Amino acid sequence: MAVSIPPVPEALLGRVVRGWRDLSTRLVQLGRDAPHGGQGLFVNPPVTRGSTVLFSSLEAMEAAGRNRYDHELIYGAMGTPVQYRLEQAVAAIEGGTHAQVVPSGLAACTLPLMAYLGAGDHCLLSDSVYGPTRRFAEKVLRRFGVEVSYFPPMADEATLRALLRPNTRLLFAESPGSHSFEVQDVDLLGRLARGVGARLVVDNTWGIGLFSPFAHGAHASVQALTKYAAGHSDAIIGAVSVADPRDWQPLRDTAIQMGQLAGPDDCWLTLRGLRTMGARQERQAASALAVALWLQGRPEVARVLHPALPSCPGHEYWLRDFSGASSLFGVVFDPAFGESDLTTMIDGLAHFGIGASWGGYESLVLPTTGGITRSSPSITHGGVACRLHIGLEAPELLVSDLARGLDGMSAARAGRGVG
Ligand SMILES: *Cc1c(COP(=O)(O)O)cnc(C)c1O
């Protein structure tokens, strides 16, 4: 059965893909050397696999080691040329000056926590953070004597002020939340953090290239490059960017002290993925918007959590701060549906893979009901929920698939005698 998708309003579509269009041209050049002195240059950097770097004299080796905050080529554990190219590109996309590449997105979440916190400090995290970030705070930070607490993602200024402590040294936000999609007022968080001498770290994975946390008061921006940058579900990698030397030096020192870096092959894959990120996302974001608008018209759906739609908490901050939207969003179902109905729906889909992660070229679905531990109430209000990642498949096909899944869901409910 072919389902036709209503046309997406032009103005909204333009607003959603604008940032990706702007980014595409920059992505061609970032992290590339200019040809010099009449010498030709390969478009892509070579992959340098190595530990030992040889020098012609001890003096030359010592001179190279003096460059520790600026891409030193002295030993493979400090980084390789392709890692440094990727770092330059990511820092520029984020609007920062320096970046540290690390072996996973999770390592990018934990590195600033290790770099900027010590025993006796207080760390205040958004309730919407990625589950393993929260687990790290609970299992590791607490063990090392850091106080940990959480703030509701949509908290107003008075609520946030009441949660600050004299020893608060770090605020950690994830905007939009990758399960619950609240878009946060990062300006407010930055202002509050700076007011008490704390740092603000933002997990900006959803907003890569669309939102610069540094223009809104953040000190560090976290990227799971595994997602949109690598873009092909074939690498695990992350990065932390900063825009101030006072934030860069402790971050770089901690990365070296903890032995954090990424393998050259993954850096190369990610740099290659970045070149086409704008083009992929221009298409995927447009399809995601079309699917989200179509879902809004379905009787099974209570609320679509897409930052470009008014039904998403914090939509006003998306309008204010983001130059576009990406291709991941949430769906909350009518409370009449239960877990088994959602299972029927998901198992009935043919074109959505069931699996963790997102940001690749393929569509994915994952149930998100109660998937995240929260201190503040969940936004699903008792309904079941799922997260959709829209890939490069034809949107008409995806909508037909979802229509079949939702019909199955309604039939399952009717079969239980409650329809
Ligand atoms: C996936 C994800 C991470 C972790 O990335 P990995 O590379 O899988 O470790 C961190 N933050 C967000 C928002 C994510 O979606």
Topology of this protein?
Elements (H helix, E strand, L loop, with lengths): L9 H20 L28 H8 L15 H14 L3 E5 L2 H12 L5 E5 L4 H11 L5 E5 L5 H7 L4 E7 L11 H10 L3 E5 L16 E4 L14 E5 L2 H13 L6 H12 L1 H20 L4 E5 L9 H7 L6 E6 L5 H9 L5 E2 L9 E4 L17 E5 L5 H21 L4
Parallel strand pairs: 2-3, 2-4, 4-5, 5-6, 10-11
Antiparallel strand pairs: 1-7, 6-7, 8-9, 9-12, 11-12
The structure holds pyridoxal-5'-phosphate.
Pyridoxal-5'-phosphate (PLP) binds next to helix 4.
Give the helix proportion (percent range). 25-40%
Number of helical elements? 13
- The residue ranges in which pLDDT falls below 50 over 5 or more consecutive positions are none
What is the averaged pLDDT score?
A: 94
- Structural class call reads alpha/beta
Listing every helix as H and every strand as E from the N terminus to the C terminus, the arrangement reads HHHEHEHEHEHEEEHHHEHEHEEEH
What is the number of E strands? 12
> In CATH's first tier, which class of the largest domain applies?
Alpha Beta
Q: Which CATH architecture of the largest domain is right? A: 3-Layer(aba) Sandwich
3D structure, described in words:
- With 419 residues, this protein is α/β, with parallel strands linked by helices.
- 39% of the residues lie in helices and 14% in strands.
- The chain folds into 2 domains: 10-22 and 276-415, Aspartate Aminotransferase, domain 1 (Alpha-Beta Complex), CATH 3.90.1150.10; 42-275, Aspartate Aminotransferase, domain 2 (3-Layer(aba) Sandwich).
- It has helices spanning 10-29, 58-65, 81-94, 105-116, 131-141, 157-163, 186-195, 245-257, 264-275, 277-296, 315-321, 339-347, 395-415, and strands at residues 98-102, 122-126, 147-151, 168-174, 199-203, 220-223, 238-242, 301-305, 328-333, 353-354, 364-367, 385-389.
- Helix 4 (105-116) runs parallel beside helix 5 (131-141), helix 4 crosses helix 8 and helix 12 (339-347) packs antiparallel against helix 13 (395-415).
- The relative contact order is 0.14.
- The chain binds pyridoxal-5'-phosphate.
- Pyridoxal-5'-phosphate (PLP) is lined by residues 104-106, 109, 130, 174, 178, 203, 205, 224, 226-227, 236, 238, 357.
- Residues 104-106, 109, 130, 174, 178, 203, 205, 224, 226-227, 236, 238, 357 line the site of pyridoxal-5'-phosphate.
